[in-house]
């Protein structure tokens, strides 16, 4: 269970529930709660660009996988390759790469790349950074890099990464590994890194206890020159405080605008939004008598009016009909909304009781479920659990249905299928089903999930992923995709900024208008 919380970058359980509750279900109460713990609403900052974030960073340790920390660190550290806006891998510290065979990848580094301390990047720094991300006890990337067998140096600017089996997602995984100097790795050993020395566009000046991060442009950066001399990223936990910072003109970009307040920002800002990589859904428990029958699961999956519910939640929420969002590799555009079922007569389940587990804060979702089931003649008992109690509850197996959320961090459906769909097991040293709390679903489905993990042909792998997605949504039916929300930004007039699908902000993507 602790692992679920620790590696929340994949399965957004505790953190996602808090965020959903804050944005979709009880905004006012959540704001009042956070007000107790947040600093003053009036933010005193300086800099050529000021960005406000809703969650503080956890530190400068490069193997942290939590989204809001990486939001900052992406502008300090760099990786071998980096996803573009469409999540395609593009050169970063590596100028080029290619496969020597099914398990060996060769990378050629950019020459004359400098770290913020003035030292020059070489292949040894990259090797040591990959090994640390794979082996460091506190690393949140260990599971992600479990396929990496070895990293060998060819020369100062060339290295070979070897996996113990074919890994079609190696580039996406390496795009999470920040590169830092070998001397920093050696200095900190088995402790978290405290010195943020990277190669990226901005270098850290100060991080104070109130969550204000100050950065200066790195004048010796290898790529396009920093647009801003000074940048400040400030943490404002309080919802109303974040909105007030925009209304007062204190910040230039507000990340994660509360949905309920998007229309109240006033003049001087534009609202920009983009669909996220997160989908929220219900999972059936086939070990309970009611849902052991796939016909029942199919019928119940069709009683929920997802479009109506998304509309009720607001303009920045959209219905979902599969377990990954559009833009994720493996999304199947042929899976579309079906007709909502208005009765289950003749199936022998009228009047049956369904036990549903939800986290505290999703009471509106609970009401929606109750009304939907009551509309077809069924009864529901919705139980709410707080924090880790919720994880214990769903692991107990006593619910007929329970709520989960998933962020496809690598932009690939494989993560969801491996972690949630596959039976909990270890196969050839690979851990599957970390978040499958209902036991074996389908043995042939397990084999299909395993098969796509080794497929290097992109077209063939996409076909496999889409087939599996169609199976779990339409035929075997493991649950009910519900909705995904959009990430909303407020951008000050005079700035040109187009959000990325992964939600990350790269500072040099925020450009002053030339008009």
Structure overview:
The chain has 515 residues and is of the alpha+beta class. It has a domain at 278-485: Roll (Dipeptide-binding Protein, domain 3). It is 27% helix and 23% strand. It has 15 helices and 22 strands. It has helices spanning 2-6, 14-25, 27-35, 67-73, 123-135, 170-174, 182-188, 239-247, 294-301, 306-313, 363-374, 388-395, 414-421, 443-452, 458-475; strands at residues 49-53, 81-83, 89-91, 94-101, 104-109, 148-155, 158-163, 202-207, 213-217, 230-235, 253-255, 269-275, 278-284, 317-319, 353-359, 379-385, 401-407, 425-427, 430-432, 479-492, 495-496, 511-512. Strands 1, 8, 9, 10, 11, 12, 13, 14, 15, 16, 17 and 20 form a 12-stranded mixed sheet that branches. α2 crosses α3 (27-35), α13 runs antiparallel to α14 and α14 packs antiparallel against α15. It starts with a helix and ends with a strand.
Radius of gyration: 23 Å
Low-confidence parts lasting 5 or more residues at pLDDT below 50?
1-46
Main structural class: alpha+beta
Could you name the CATH homologous superfamily of the domain at 278-485?
A: Dipeptide-binding Protein, Domain 3
DSSP, total strands: 22
Q: Report the total helices.
A: 15
Distance between the first and last residues' Cα: 53 Å
Beta-strand percentage?
A: 15-25%
**CATH topology annotation of the domain at 278-485:** Dipeptide-binding Protein, domain 3
CATH architectural type of the domain at 278-485: Roll
User: Which CATH first-tier class of the domain at 278-485 would you pick?
Assistant: Alpha Beta
